[in-house]
Amino acid sequence: MVVITGAAGGIGASLCESFAGAGVRAVVAVDVDASRLDVVVSETRARGTDTIGVVADVTSEEEIRAAVDQAQASHGGIDILVQNAGHFAPGGPQAPNSAWQRCLAVNVMAHVYGARAVLPGMLGRSEGYIVNMCSAAGVLTDPTAAPYAVSKHAAVGFAEWLAIACRGTGVRVSAVCPQSVDTPMLDAFLASTGEAAKGFVGEVLAPRTVADRIVAGVTADSFLIYPHATTAKAEAARGRDRDAWIAGQPHLFDLAGSLSSTGDARG
Questions:
Q1: Which one from 113, 129, 148, 226 is the annotated catalytic residue?
Q2: Mind listing the pLDDT tens digit for each residue in 219-247?
């Protein structure tokens, strides 16, 4: 039984399809958008998979616990938790505090809340899988978006900690690190950076392609799942010579004003 957050669109909706196609016994789709969630649930049911939708905000620990409780009450023990919900915010240090807080809440703390909710059951059964969406920005960076890149680095760090802590327990962990995917999040990125970012975007994969590669990575029990092959190559180059890698990163827009600004960024 698979629980997927951020399931109402993009990669999340495609993950519902991909796991259904892989023959899972049930899918529990979780999202804050009730109307779009209903569509995904109907489409996944049409594929012959027992599916329910649960409306929940991943930034609320109480709502995540309630979603997990509902999933377990409906379908028994959770075999796989896919923490797919994400938030993008552009800018440097002077990005508003609200942008930083939202990225940390959705991209990091939601993963903590989900792990807290499912680990007791998984550890009790000595089996389970936690899949955290971490982005290529979490192993590389995003020079346009400090709040996003920093939060995704933290997400990778938490997933790695979990993987080490859970060794020998039967609970496995993966960190998914895609680059550009044809989703509303990519649209938001391009809207915030304009023409300068198009060369940085690189290969854009369809959400279903990414979802299928995530399912394959889970089947192979890979900690780092790279839907884009170029991510692994870039991370290897970063590890070999960090100075050279930093020097080679693009400047997509002039951050000088942001870096030197004394304006109020608390909004």
A1: 148
A2: 999 999 999 999 999 999 999 999 999 99
Q: What is the pLDDT of residue 241?
A: 96
129 is catalytic: no
Predicted structure pTM score: 0.91
Q: SS3 sequence, the chain?
A: CEEEECCCCHHHHHHHHHHHHCCCCEEEEEECCHHHHHHHHHHHHHCCCEEEEEECCCCCHHHHHHHHHHHHHHHCCCCEEEECCCCCCCECCCCCHHHHHHHHHHHHHHHHHHHHHHHHHHHHHCCEEEEEECCHHHCCCCCCEHHHHHHHHHHHHHHHHHHHHCCCCCEEEEEECCCCECCHHHHHHHHHHHHHHHHHHCCCECHHHHHHHHHHHHHCCCCEECCCHHHHHHHHHHHHCHHHHHHCCCCCCCCHHHHHCCCCCCC
CA neighbours closer than 13 Å in the CB half-sphere of residue 213 = 20
Q: Which residue has the tokens 């970063």?
A: 238
